[in-house]
Amino acid sequence: MDLDNLYQELIVDHGTQPRNFAELDSHSHDAEGFNPLCGDLVHVYVKLDGDKIADVSFTGKGCAISTASASIMTDLVKGKTLTEVRALFKQFQDLLTKDNQSEVELGKLSALAGVKKYPSRVKCATLAWHTLQDACKE
Ligand code: ZN
In this predicted model, what pLDDT tens digit does every residue of 84-112 receive, in sequence order? Predict the structure, then answer.
């Protein structure tokens, strides 16, 4: 997959029409993340129910990869516990940085596997996840 195809796939789907792209009215937690390498800005809003993510959304301004990754993340983590989210993030990081990783449980996040060939863009793809974890810290 070259960068054009990668961009195309992401832009067509989540990059141009991000899901859950709004400030959450009744969020219990939120955090801002910034990726100085690219200029990506993301603000993640979370409504926690115990240790479960009852609802999640984001706003911000960034490249197609950061926007698409944040959009897919919000779809994926809704209804999951923080433990499950940590495990997913670990898998996603492995997918972006290690060879021969299983993409099975990552669903649409697997579309971002091509980022692995562009190490400088890994921070774009993981920004929303880091920010989500920041938001959920006590
Ligand atoms: Zn970026």
Answer: 999 999 999 998 998 877 666 677 787 78
